[in-house]
Design brief:
Strand content: 25-35%
Protein name: Ribosome maturation factor RimP
Largest sheet: 5 strands, antiparallel
CATH topology of the largest domain: GMP Synthetase, Chain A, domain 3
Radius of gyration: 20 Å
Order of helices and strands: HEEHEHEEEEE
CATH architecture of the largest domain: 2-Layer Sandwich
Strand order of the largest sheet: 7-6-5-4-8
Subcellular location: Cytoplasm
Keywords: Cytoplasm, Ribosome biogenesis
CATH class of the largest domain: Alpha Beta
Shape: elongated
Main location: cytoplasm
InterPro entries: Ribosome_maturation_RimP, RimP_C, RimP_N, RimP_N_sf
Distance between the termini: 58 Å
CATH superfamily of the largest domain: RimP-like superfamily, N-terminal
Number of domains: 2
Length: 173
């Protein structure tokens, strides 16, 4: 793909994102990633969405309907080439790069690689536009986003969320 084709593909991607941002925002979604890639004689449009409180399968279905509606109404956005649409939620394996990512993952365990090469793992207690406070083995540690090279939510199995009670085995009875 020449640089001209790449520039054209980027322009289409940017236009699609611009067309979708408002309608999806009205439904409470943020576009976390938008990728347009060739797949034979078709293209694949992948849109990853997120929202406060997380994204359910019903949310993905709502977002898919909205994206389809917008692209059908603005038929010139995607051009003549057929495409396949995939709408997904922002995966937990995606790095925390924006303040809203930290906010939406409050109470989750996160592994942070610092710009200076240090590493810290702790539970997100709170966050604002510039930093997050982590519980690192019982000690509160403020981490400015400017100090963060990479931050990933850690998957935890069988962790009881605060406010849950009862034995998990009882749920199967």
């Amino acid at each position: 793909m020449g640089s001209h084709d790449r520039t054209r593909a980027d322009a289409v991607r940017d236009r699609v994102e611009a067309e979708l941002a408002g309608p999806l925002g009205t439904l409470g979604f943020d576009i976390e990633a938008l990728e347009l890639s060739p797949a034979g004689k078709r293209r694949v449009l992948r849109v990853a969405v997120d929202r406060d409180g997380g994204v359910t399968l019903d949310d993905v279905a709502d977002a898919t309907r909205e994206v389809s509606r917008v692209l059908d109404e603005e038929s010139d956005v995607m051009g003549e080439m057929p495409y396949t649409l995939e709408v997904t939620s922002r995966g937990v394996d995606r790095p925390l790069t924006l303040p809203r990512h930290w906010r939406r993952n409050a109470d989750r365990l996160v592994a942070v690689t610092l710009v200076d090469g240090g590493e810290v793992t702790g539970r997100i207690l709170s966050s604002d536009d510039t930093s997050a406070t982590l519980d690192v083995d019982g000690t509160h540690r403020d981490v400015a986003y400017a100090e963060v090279s990479r931050a990933l939510v850690q998957i935890e199995f069988n962790r009881r969320r605060s406010g849950t009670d009862g034995d998990p085995e009882e749920d199967d009875a």
